[in-house]
Amino acid sequence: AAMSRKGMKLLVDSLTRSSKHFNKSEVECLVNLFDTLVAKASSDFAGVGFNRIVFRDTLHSAFGMTDDVVLDRVFSIFDRDNDGCITVMEWVEGLGVLLRGTLDEKIKHCFRVYDLNGDGYISREEMFQMLKNSLLIQSADEEPDEGIKDLVEIALKKMDHDHDGKLSFMDFEKAVRDENLLLEAFGPCLPDIK
């Protein structure tokens, strides 16, 4: 359903006020893109938002994000009310963090992506799953899972400051502040710099 000019202006004004990362014309562009995606989705959420498939295709084509596990996690983080649909507000706020987020926001975002079961920790198993998805290991003489297990142990040694065998948010945050390259240690969950 096409929105009236006045409705569009009110929406853009409201989203510009709530967005810390985009100016008014950027919000307008994001809302227009959102409308295009909703039209493309032709799903159960007609007019309200779009689903996981459209989201995945969009992030894949716009930002080169290809890892399905990561994209599903990013979708879950965008989809704040967990209804399977990305609304315009979730879209603008989510992209704000993804594209222009502060280091703090990006640390929170990446941690939530890697914490697959949402228990507040990144466990050995979660690290293993994420690394297994994001690495291409080609070695004839070595069992690929062994290489990934070794990487998990190296990551724990470097990042697990309280030595409890898993990464709390505080462990992760401290490690990333000490060494920014560790932000995406377990797989790419932010767009390419381009």
TrEMBL record:
<dbReference type="Pfam" id="PF13499">
    <property type="entry name" value="EF-hand_7"/>
</dbReference>
<dbReference type="Pfam" id="PF13202">
    <property type="entry name" value="EF-hand_5"/>
</dbReference>
<feature type="domain" description="EF-hand">
    <location>
        <begin position="102"/>
        <end position="137"/>
    </location>
</feature>
<dbReference type="GO" id="GO:0005509">
    <property type="term" value="F:calcium ion binding"/>
</dbReference>
<dbReference type="InterPro" id="IPR018247">
    <property type="entry name" value="EF_Hand_1_Ca_BS"/>
</dbReference>
<feature type="domain" description="EF-hand">
    <location>
        <begin position="147"/>
        <end position="182"/>
    </location>
</feature>
<dbReference type="InterPro" id="IPR011992">
    <property type="entry name" value="EF-hand-dom_pair"/>
</dbReference>
<keyword id="KW-0677">Repeat</keyword>
<feature type="domain" description="EF-hand">
    <location>
        <begin position="66"/>
        <end position="101"/>
    </location>
</feature>
<keyword id="KW-0479">Metal-binding</keyword>
<dbReference type="InterPro" id="IPR028846">
    <property type="entry name" value="Recoverin"/>
</dbReference>
<protein>
    <submittedName>
        <fullName>EFCB1 protein</fullName>
    </submittedName>
</protein>
<keyword id="KW-0106">Calcium</keyword>
<dbReference type="InterPro" id="IPR002048">
    <property type="entry name" value="EF_hand_dom"/>
</dbReference>
